[in-house]
Design a protein that fits this description.
393 residues; alpha+beta; Alpha-Beta Plaits; 2 domains; two-stranded antiparallel sheet; 15 helices; 60% helix; elongated; binds guanosine-5'-triphosphate
Length: 393
């Protein structure tokens, strides 16, 4: 997924590196296409209520204006703007989910004009030059460019920090879109102003944002927020294209009502989250949250011995996982849960068990018929005493 989001910008980087005079760069009417791209993504972000993109688009538009402007040559203003925009991007990275209706978003909104004012008042480039840094730091990247290596380096460092940050947390489409935008901005700091590439940089960045928005929406539509597993809509899509040799399994937590009543709904939610984390790590199957405390596993084969082995592996993985029930934050996923087991703040350790009902797909069977039979197998597992599996071949 990340590569697809970054693809427009990466392709542009390669094309620009190989042949800056590429005929493709002359293909579309500019600046009309740039404005159209910017306005389309802006409207899409507004429509999908992804307001944090507005800031990014604002910075992108400012850069575009700077990069496509031919009368801004080597001024203080032109020298400091990329640097200050980079600072703004860093602010944006540090402020999670800015909203124009909250203080963090308002601060971000007024920072570009403030930074612009500052950049005119403070001779940043002169100051930095007097710091006796090596000359290359201040040389314009290209003869015609008012922008120097310092900006490019600053952006590269920022892009590096961004990449590390993305890889430390579970990467989201939005992060990769932001990274694509960052790369496009990096490119716009090193190209000569007023060239066709400046226009294409903006279009490529807009495409990256567009793809990121599409992935964000797909995620919202298909991924269950609590367990982070794909949910029923995704399961039905999978079942509709299921091969002849396959099997599915319905599973649910045993006596979950009692568990909720004893420990509270919040702890119950943590159990489901943990279950999602455990199931997502089991190899050789795809796990879905069917709804409530029910999950569905889909297998791409119908081999009895292999299925039995996998069902037992899943059953054991859950039954042997000690859950630490505490007053404060409970484990967010299976790895943090393991750490929590050793800590002294634990009040009580409990185990939950699951029952599993599995059946092999029959010839001509519809998804609903298959699900119904798996449900019957699950019922049989419950009747057989729970914490077990029933496999119907
Ligand atoms: N915490 C939490 N509970 C849920 C969620 N969805 C469903 N439940 C609870 O799951 C329980 C399911 O109860 P039952 O269907 O009676 O089954 P059970 O108590 O698990 O008993 P058996 O399935 O027969 O072993 C209900 O109490 C629901 O409120 C959820 O998202 N979070």
């Amino acid at each position: 997924m990340p590569l697809i989001i970054l693809l427009p910008v990466l392709l542009l980087l390669v094309a620009q590196g190989l042949t800056p005079e590429l005929a493709l760069f002359q293909l579309l009417p500019f600046p009309q296409t740039s404005y159209l791209a910017l306005i389309s993504v802006l409207l899409l972000a507004l429509l999908l209520r992804q307001t944090e993109w507005l800031y990014w688009l604002g910075i992108l538009a400012t850069h575009y204006w700077l990069a496509s402007s031919t009368n801004l040559t080597a001024t203080e203003f032109a020298n400091s703007l990329p640097l200050l925009s980079a600072s703004l991007l860093l602010l944006l990275a540090l402020i999670p989910k800015p909203s124009p209706f909250k203080l963090n978003g308002l601060l971000l909104l007024i920072s570009p004009p403030l930074l612009l004012l500052l950049s005119q008042q403070l001779p940043l480039a002169t100051w930095l030059a007097s710091a006796q840094l090596p000359a290359i730091v201040f040389q314009p990247v290209l003869a015609a460019s008012p922008i120097n290596w310092l900006s490019a380096w600053w952006f590269s460092i920022l892009a590096g920090i961004w990449l590390i940050a993305i890889n430390l947390k579970p990467p989201k489409a939005a992060n990769w879109g932001e990274f694509g935008l960052l790369l496009a901005l990096l490119l716009s700091t090193v190209i000569p102003p007023g060239t066709a590439v400046a226009n294409w940089t903006l279009v490529a960045a807009c495409l990256s944002v567009f793809l990121a928005l599409a992935f964000q929406m797909l995620h919202l539509a298909y991924i269950d927020e609590l367990t982070q597993l794909p949910q029923r809509r995704a399961l039905m899509a999978h079942l509709n294209r299921l091969g002849r040799n396959s099997a599915i399994c319905m599973l649910d937590v045993d006596h979950f009502k009692k568990f909720n009543d004893t420990y509270g709904h919040d702890v119950g939610d943590q159990v489901l989250k943990l279950l999602g984390s455990i199931l997502s790590k089991v190899k050789g199957l795809t796990a879905y949250r069917y709804g409530g405390e029910e999950f569905t596993l889909v297998f791409g084969h119908n081999k009895k011995a292999l299925l039995e082995e996998k069902l037992e592996e899943v059953r054991l993985a859950v039954a042997e996982y000690p859950l630490v029930i505490r007053n404060d934050n409970r484990p967010k996923d299976s790895s943090s849960g393991k750490k929590a087991r050793g800590s002294s703040g634990a009040e009580k350790t409990v185990n939950v068990t699951i029952s599993l009902g599995c059946c092999v797909k029959q010839k001509g069977e519809t998804p609903m018929q298959l699900l119904k039979r798996a449900d019957e197998a699950l019922y049989a597992a419950k009747k057989a005493g729970r914490n077990t599996f029933v496999l119907k071949i």
